[in-house]
Design brief:
The structure is a single chain. With about 170 residues, this protein is mainly alpha-helical. It folds into three domains: about 50 residues, Arc Repressor Mutant, subunit A; about 50 residues; about 35 residues, no CATH class. The protein is built from eight helices and two strands. Strands 1-2 form a two-stranded antiparallel ribbon. Strand 1 and strand 2 form a beta hairpin. Helix 5 crosses helix 6. The longest helix has 13 residues. The radius of gyration is 28 Å and the shape is flat.
Length: about 170
């Protein structure tokens, strides 16, 4: 059974309800935490919203931000890389009319890395190539122990050959 997870606008409505009931911001926060646990708004956020309500601002949706709008969308960048994954940051920056650092930050945000001159999407599988899973109920206890401790079982221990000096040294 799924559990109801409130969004921030819903929680702001709950705060407005407690504000109208003449509760304090701290009291409303305590009730939110008791009711919604980790999904509750922070104490500071509750205080900020109570301050807005006291100033007769009852709009629960986010206001427009004054920050600089994005100069290009991620989709544009992805399309350019689909067309030619070997483009450099400099080339991408010129096409999109932004600085290389902006392109670099956006590529990092998209989980892209450059290897051998081509851009690739990073996947967990590529970052952890030597991982494996073990069914703890059916696996051989010796294999489980070796997987957890990182020690190789005796049957897989490497064989070391003696070191002989190079014949021409």
């Amino acid at each position: 059974m799924s559990k109801f997870v409130p969004d921030k606008v819903f929680l702001r409505g709950v705060l407005l309800h407690y504000f109208n009931m003449n509760k304090s911001a701290a009291e409303a926060h305590r009730i939110l935490v008791q009711t919604y646990g980790d999904n509750a708004l922070s104490d500071t956020t509750c205080r900020d919203w109570f301050r807005r309500f006291k100033n007769n601002d009852f709009e629960l949706e986010d206001k427009e931000r004054s920050g600089v709008p994005k100069k290009f969308e991620d989709k544009e960048l992805e399309k350019l890389l689909d067309e030619d994954p070997s483009q450099t940051l400099s080339e991408l920056g010129k096409i999109l009319q932004v600085d290389e650092s902006t392109v670099s930050k956006r590529l990092k945000g998209l989980g892209m890395i450059q290897k051998q001159g081509h851009w690739f999407q990073i996947s967990i599988e590529s970052l952890l190539p030597n991982t494996f899973t073990i069914d703890l109920q059916t696996a051989d206890p010796e294999r489980v122990r070796s997987a957890i401790t990182g020690q190789l079982p005796k049957s897989l221990l490497p064989v070391f050959l003696p070191h002989f000096p190079h014949p021409f040294s």
